[in-house]
Amino acid sequence: MAEGWSYLVTGIVLGLAGGFAPGPITTLVIVQSLRYGLKEGLRIAIAPLLTDAPIALAALFVIGKLDDTGPALGTITLMGSAFLIYLAYENAFAQPPQTTAVVDLPRSLRKGIVTNLVNPNPYLFWFTIGAPTVVEAYPNGVFVGLFLVGLYSALIGSKATFAVVAAKGRSLLAGTVYRYTLVVLSLVLLGLALKFASDGLGYLGVL
């Protein structure tokens, strides 16, 4: 069962890293919360839960169609390692999200869905990290469930935190807590990148 908890922790870390990282969804959460209140910001926060499913299924379908998954998963997982290193760098040097954008009408859920669908990060995540992790955990369905629960509870929870903070006042977003959180997450992401690199080399038969 210890292995199962590792999937839960991995999902939580990835969810927090994606949730706290500045980006189009984070910015939209803040904008809607500042302009229209907490309820509209929370509608943006749940958008990934609604839009990631087709992306994840497409990634799993492509991987499932491969005759020899070892080399493909190895290559994809190494790409995932590189993507995690990129996210770690981006988070470590990120500035607080901008709060000055103007949105004319709420339509928060629709905007969140469209923004996430045109955002390349969910595609990169599912094709390089998410899908290989699900494939690895698939022999035990509970492990897949733990990974997904950890991922989306952390992802949506972190976006919801931005909504609450933005609704209360934009000045809190410039605090040192936000910067330290990103730095800590960057270090954890580097650790995960090493794990993915090791897994990828294992799939390729190098290790």
Task: Provide structural commentary.
The protein is mainly α. The chain is built from nine helices and no strands. α2 packs antiparallel against α6 (108-117) and α3 packs parallel to α6 (108-117). It is globular and about 50 Å long.
Record keyword descriptors for this entry.
0% strand; single chain; mainly alpha; 207 residues; globular
Question: Helices and strands in order, then pairings?
Answer:
Blueprint: H1 2-20, H2 24-36, H3 38-45, H4 47-64, H5 69-92, H6 108-117, H7 120-137, H8 141-168, H9 176-203
Helix pairs in contact: 1-8, 1-9, 2-3, 2-6, 2-8, 3-6, 3-8, 4-6, 4-7, 5-7, 5-9
Question: What is the number of strand segments?
Answer: 0
Q: Structural class, please?
A: mainly alpha
β-sheet strand percentage? under 5%
- Taking pLDDT < 50 over at least 5 consecutive residues as the criterion, the unreliable ranges are none
Shape: globular
What is the N-to-C order of secondary-structure elements (H for helix, E for strand)?
Answer: HHHHHHHHH
Number of helices: 9
Termini separation (Å)?
25 Å
What is the radius of gyration computed over CA atoms, rounded to a whole number of angstroms? 17 Å
Mean of residue pLDDT values:
80
Question: How would you sum up the major sheet?
Answer: none
Percent helix among the residues?
over 70%
